[in-house]
Amino acid sequence: MAGIEEQPPVDDSAKQREWDEYYMKIACLAALRSKDPRTPVGACIVDSENEQIVGIGYNSMPKDENFTWKGTSSTKKTSSLDPQENAANPELKYAYVVHAAVNAILNKTKESIKGCTLYTTLHPDDDCARAIVTAGIKKVVYCMYKRDKNLEVGMKIADVFFDIKGVKLRKLPEASLKVCEYVKELQNRIDVGGKNKSSEEQSGEEEPSVDRKIEPASWEKFFMSMAKLSQERPGDFKNKAVGACIASPDNQIMAVTYSGEPDGIEDEVKRLAKERHDLTLTKIPEFYTHAEYRAIVGKPSVRGYTLYVTSYPCNVCAKVIVESGIKEVVHYKNGDWNDDRCYSSRKILTTCLGPSNIRKYGNGDSINESQDEASRSIAIEEPGHT
Ligand SMILES: [Zn+2]
């Protein structure tokens, strides 16, 4: 009997947990783009059928820039319609903020996200629930951080919404998430915001936390961080994967992908090679699909977009990059120029996109590293040190 106990448990739930954590980390990274000084929230939508990310969002003010997080006056208090005019009551921000789940749904990269799973760093409220059920999302996974008490009613309403529409809601335990730098940074940002709040409540003074201006890391750093984080996908390809992220000119994330195939493909390839009596078919890497390839071919159109990728694309990927209309490639690592495939890839990309549109991460003009250092930036290793 002891032998039975020592056997590893049937691993479906453990595997599911790993994927849940992976997607939740993506949601946490998204949250770091939020400028909310108290409760930054991130969300990520996953098409369970092919394990593709089909929407990413974080809580923002309308158009992200127009309104202040201090709350905007209602017309009862002032006749001003100036969006930056602060009211005495910072809670008024809730009337203006667009929630992370709603933004993720609006940022969807395919026509229908029916049946998809939404990962969010916070329990949804009624505002989120309305969008979730309208979009046809069927599963919601949340973790971590508490909402303000005055929004608990909204959370209860969301639960009823989900019951009626058959949306499955589950909580991901936060313990194992703490290993990730983005989770830590998010937790820290929330802690600081929360601390300020309680001291304000004790002293009865004006909300100091909302004066804390959050300057997220540059878009370029954000997109490359997405690509690097997606390298950390669990399963067979753990530590082998390349990550890619495609962004539109208006900074919408169109794809976040990793290289590889579903778990178990190696065994399946070996089995079929044996069955066909041809062991030359066991060259496993030939069966891998690269991250950038998946990102491009999996989307309807990427014309005019920028590709962020953790390794220099190979020649197979270079061909689809240029033919797809991708206009710019930012790579984290250089290629091995002595390798024929890498050499031809470089030739294809520089010839077709122009040398200035294929560049190493951190070398571009658009990235202002010193500005990033000054802000509470997303940590990322310097290029060339992996
Ligand atoms: Zn490739």
Automatic annotation (TrEMBL):
Its cofactor is: Zn(2+)
Any GO CC annotation of this UniProt entry: cytoplasm
Q: Which InterPro entries did the record assign?
A: CMP_dCMP_dom (IPR002125), Cytidine_deaminase-like (IPR016193), dCMP_deaminase-rel (IPR015517), Deoxycytidylate_deaminase_dom (IPR035105)
Do you know which PROSITE patterns this protein is assigned to?
CYT_DCMP_DEAMINASES_2
Q: Which GO terms describe its molecular function?
A: dCMP deaminase activity
Q: Which residues lie in coiled coils?
A: none
Q: Which PANTHER family match?
A: DEOXYCYTIDYLATE DEAMINASE (PTHR11086:SF18), DEOXYCYTIDYLATE DEAMINASE-RELATED (PTHR11086)
Name by which UniProt lists this protein: dCMP deaminase
Q: Which residues cross the membrane?
A: none
Keyword set for this entry?
Hydrolase, Nucleotide biosynthesis
Q: Specify the signal sequence span.
A: none
User: Per the database record, which ranges form the CMP/dCMP-type deaminase domain?
Assistant: 18-180, 218-348
Biological process annotations from GO: nucleotide biosynthetic process
Q: What is its EC number?
A: 3.5.4.12
Enzyme category, top tier? hydrolase
Q: What is the lineage of its organism?
A: Eukaryota, Metazoa, Porifera, Demospongiae, Heteroscleromorpha
